[in-house]
Specification:
alpha+beta, 2 helices, 5 strands, 15% helix, globular
Length: 100
């Protein structure tokens, strides 16, 4: 089943140079995801805090992008569909801290 939310993908400005919540708390992350509705940068589900998924549950913003490293894919939390974003990647707005 195709994703009903792809048409709503926005060009966004990243909210932070890393996971917004982890930077505030001093925690580390593995990979980053960016919300393609508002630009919130959160950590992936393999990271201890899973802030990208928490952002989805709090806002219901459906689409994330594999942001760092730039992976060229998108994921819809609602429709549980992965899709290609390699021609629409969000650029970094500065150096991303590395913990791996």
């Amino acid at each position: 089943m195709p994703c009903k939310h792809i048409a709503g993908i926005q060009s966004v400005t990243p909210s932070a140079l890393g996971c917004e919540e982890c930077l505030q708390s001093g925690d580390v992350w593995l990979h980053l995801r960016i919300c393609r509705t508002c630009g919130h940068v959160g950590c992936c589900d393999d990271s201890p805090n899973r802030h990208a998924t928490a952002h989805f549950h709090a806002t219901r913003h459906p689409i994330i992008e594999g942001y760092d490293p730039p992976e060229g894919w998108g994921w819809c939390y609602v429709d549980k569909v992965m899709f290609d974003l390699s021609d629409r990647k969000t650029p970094h707005n500065g150096p991303i801290p590395r913990y791996y």
